[in-house]
TrEMBL record:
GO terms for molecular function: 2 iron, 2 sulfur cluster binding; metal ion binding. The lineage of its organism: Bacteria, Pseudomonadati, Thermodesulfobacteriota, Desulfovibrionia, Desulfovibrionales. The keyword Heme does not apply. This is Rieske (2Fe-2S) iron-sulfur domain-containing protein. It comes from Pseudodesulfovibrio mercurii. PROSITE patterns: RIESKE (PS51296). The chain crosses the membrane at residues 22-42. SUPFAM superfamilies: ISP domain. CDD domains: Rieske (cd03467). Residues 58-150 form the Rieske domain. Keywords: 2Fe-2S, Disulfide bond, Iron, Iron-sulfur, Membrane, Metal-binding, Transmembrane, Transmembrane helix. Pfam families: Rieske. Its cofactor is [2Fe-2S] cluster.
Amino acid sequence: MSKWEQKNGAGLTTRRTFLNRLWIFLGLAGLAEFAWLGVSFLGARRDRDRPEAAERIVTVGEAASFKPGTVTPVPQGRFYLARLADGGFLALSRTCTHLGCSVPWDEDKHLFVCPCHGSSFSLTGEVLTGPAPRPLDTFAVRIEDGVVKVDCATPRRRDRFRAEQAVRL
């Protein structure tokens, strides 16, 4: 090292430089911790929302116990079981297709009415009044030995109601 470098401190780390680098390191470590927490949170949420194979099949009850023209809320699922006048079954999502609000069944009006923006849906889930852009989503229904079972893993989007969407005995 030359005399000039020794006199002027060239090649040595000053306290100011050391503290600046320390703060940068601590800031990056803090950002990395927040990123790790965010990834962990989102990963856990995604796993929680994915039903296990055994949990996604919901046994609703004996098919004969549901009267035609009725709607039954299913607490352990996120759907209503609608028994159509012709005897067919539909599992309708509780989620409005407009903005995702929970849509209750109004027994007096015989309609699903969204409390958020006033969309209404028929017994088959068809849009009667907007702003909902499409009918309520459905879930797969099957009847095994007279027992109604619904696969609530994946809702099925549809653009309108068709008679073949209803499952019959």
